[in-house]
Design a protein that fits this description.
about 200 residues; Immunoglobulin-like
């Protein structure tokens, strides 16, 4: 009986940890694009709750610089607003880029209680717009240098999930056989008229 109770307790504890598993996902608005197109990659965090709110983060966004060039950075969630700036006090935002990486830092100025009471459990930290400059398949990943809760204490991540985007050539449609036939007829008519006008 004691063994059964112990196993049941372990299962319950494990389930409670998994229910609040904090993860970051990179989500592309399109996983297959053409050369010259743009793609937006969202960096979303999930698994937060009232007892764990995000107050600060320092992450590296990694990409293949031979395939993509960096465009704009959009801070916050396009639908829910910036969840590190809930009451409009602003947040400290900074970004530094290198070849194949972009470091992003944000620190909330909101009060601890506001972050814990009003912050959503899942939201977009930021979005990156990139331009396809070569043909290939590029992986995007994230390195979490530091994540802090509303008090600045370390927040443990359970997983970070990257994404892959394929860049294809621009397909040029071949002219239909009807268009070729019309073009050839037009050339024949022009040649006939030119030869008649020269006589």
């Amino acid at each position: 009986m004691k063994t059964l109770l112990r196993v049941f307790s372990i299962v319950c504890i494990a389930a409670s940890f998994n229910a609040n598993a904090i993860s970051i996902d990179l989500i592309a608005d399109n996983n297959a694009i053409n050369l010259g197109d743009s793609v937006e990659v969202q960096v979303r965090i999930s698994g937060l709750d009232g007892s764990t709110a995000l107050g600060v983060y320092d992450v590296n966004f990694n990409y293949d610089a031979s395939l993509f060039s960096l465009g704009n950075i959009s801070w916050g969630d396009s639908l829910q607003g910036n969840q590190l700036d809930l009451l409009g006090f602003g947040s400290l935002q900074d970004s530094i880029s290198g070849s194949g990486w972009l470091n992003l830092f944000e620190l909330s100025f909101d009060a601890v209680t506001d972050l814990e009471n009003y912050q959503a459990g899942e939201f977009t930290l930021f979005s990156i717009l990139l331009n396809a400059i070569a043909i290939g398949s590029g992986d995007f990943s994230l390195t979490a240098n530091a994540l802090g809760d509303a008090y600045g204490n370390n927040v443990a991540l359970d997983s970070i999930n990257g994404t892959r985007i394929n860049i294809n050539t621009i397909s040029v449609p071949e002219p239909s056989s009807l268009l070729l036939l019309i073009g050839m007829l037009a050339i024949l008519v022009l040649r006939t008229r030119l030869s008649q006008s020269q006589k």
